[in-house]
Design goal:
globular; two-stranded antiparallel sheet; DUF6624; mainly alpha
Length: 162
């Protein structure tokens, strides 16, 4: 059953998500300031992934996300955090700031059967950047997005536009 995104139920759910995101950010910020980005070797993969997800969804606090990007860059450089997490976070923040993304990780569903990548700064460099970050090729990723975002009736219809 689809819910109208403008319905009172959907708006209430969106407000609740925003509240939880703000609370998570408020709790995570001092921990990251004190401890830095969690190392997979020290804290485990699950902790690193959960912290990354919380930062990914802290869109209401761009300065916090930018601070976290600096920490995550160090973690990637030291080999204690995945480059893919940095790519997704950098792209999400860039798009949120009205800039083009570098890795092609951010997309929107446009219409019932169409997924469209959001603007990319240099399509000619995306393949190398994705490879370096440990991401699959862009066409493979777009196919994955289509499978995840679109209903089965849309599979094989339309194409995601880079």
């Amino acid at each position: 059953m689809d819910v109208d995104p403008k319905s009172p139920q959907a708006e209430k759910a969106a407000d609740r998500v925003m509240l939880v995101d703000r609370q998570n950010t408020a709790q995570l910020r001092p921990w990251l300031q004190r401890c830095g980005w969690p190392s997979i070797r020290t804290h485990g993969e699950e902790v690193e992934v959960l912290v990354w997800l919380l930062v990914q969804h802290a869109d209401q606090d761009r300065p916090f996300q930018l601070f976290a990007i600096d920490l995550l860059k160090r973690g990637v450089f030291e080999g204690s955090a995945p480059g893919a997490h940095l790519a997704y976070l950098e792209d999400r923040v860039a798009i949120g700031m009205g800039k083009p993304q570098r890795y092609g990780t951010q997309a929107e569903q446009k219409g019932p059967c169409h997924v469209e990548l959001l603007p990319i700064d240099d399509l000619g460099k995306v393949a190398a950047r994705r490879r370096q970050a440990g991401l699959p090729p862009l066409d493979t990723y777009v196919d994955q997005l289509r499978s995840a975002m679109l209903p089965p009736t849309c599979q094989g219809d339309g194409k995601a536009a880079p």
